[in-house]
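Suppose a colleague, Dr. K., hands you the sequence of a protein chain of 415 amino acids and asks what its three-dimensional shape might be. Before reaching for any lab equipment, you can write down a predicted structure in token form. Begin with the sequence itself:
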Amino acid sequence: MFSQLHTHTHIGSRLDAMASPGDYAERAAEFNHKAVAITDHGRLNGIHEHQQQCLKYDVKPIIGVEMYVADELEVYGDDEKRKRTKNRHVVLLVKNKKGYENLLRLNYISVKDTEHFYYLPRINKEELFRYNEGLVLGTACMGNPFAQLMLMDRTDDAYSLFEEYHEVFKEDFYVEIQLNELQDQKRVNELMINLANVNGVPIVMTGDVHYLEKGQHELQTLAMAIRDKSTIDNIQFEFESKELYYHHTNDYIDFNERFNYNYDKSDIISWCRNTTDVSVKIDFLLPERNKLFLPKITDDDDRELIKKGKAGLEERFECDYKDVPKEYRSQLEKELEVIIRKGFSSYFLIVDDITQFSIREGIYGRIGRGSVGGSLLAYSLGIHNLDPIKRGLLFERFMSDKRSPDLVLDYFCEK
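The predicted structure, expressed as tokens, is then:
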């Protein structure tokens, strides 16, 4: 039995991960893994999609994040310029409702000001300890605070810090072991296993998964080059390990032999099984999102919206739709495609109905510009009278140049 507790998706990990929540959920079901976690770097924007996909494949979703914990939030050099500080990694998994509330609180803290968000969303150790209730903590990769101390030859400090974390998280504290081709990983594993044994902390096997299939490391490197605006000949960063795909237990047995870790096979299997102990602890699902239920105006609101949008432009230009300027036809059709795909046809028809009622009853209205996808459609329906193609860019110019409000109002006033 195995559950993957450390995965990164293309949604939240800024192109240093390629696979989708659906990819992982499908693979988990294929491998008969009962649960899979999402642990994107410092971001929670993939958690709803993760849960939806896991439930689709009858896999237990685990909500989490790989959080950045800064040694110091603000450090300035002698030149009074702010310096980037070291950010350590820990994995946080939501155990229950209280844990979800605390994860949201920590996520907010990590981005709430420039003290915390500096290149990356970050928290400090004290904030993590303050809001630990309901969270399971895994020690993540070689970037964890204990491993980093050890790699700086501060092993005693690593042991002291580990004891601090263990005292706070107690039975919800787990040491992650990862197997790959990196020599430093062997040194880190030795430390982490010793820390676990000395303190009686369970060990779990994790994969630090960034893509789905073995051999996709080159594609992953290209994705990160796009993120970093690098060229193929000038790659700024790539993962040292080429084995960060979605693993089966047999992969870890293979890595153990191939990369000469020489652990007992029984230990590998035990560490994999311990992941199930973590997944069993998890008792939380995201509450179902509030849904917007709108009455249908016609038997086919999509078709009706297309009809009314085109008729509106015909009326505006006093010609058949085929004779409407191409720029307007192209923009309208693009907006209609997005609105229909997102399920907002009924919404626009309802707003149009309210607007037309107001016009008939002499109620003051039609002030506005529309926005983004609905801008030209709103103009064609008569929801407002501002031609977004003719006026739109000029409006931005007025606002960006900080022109006077009176001048803007005069410019857009109905003639």
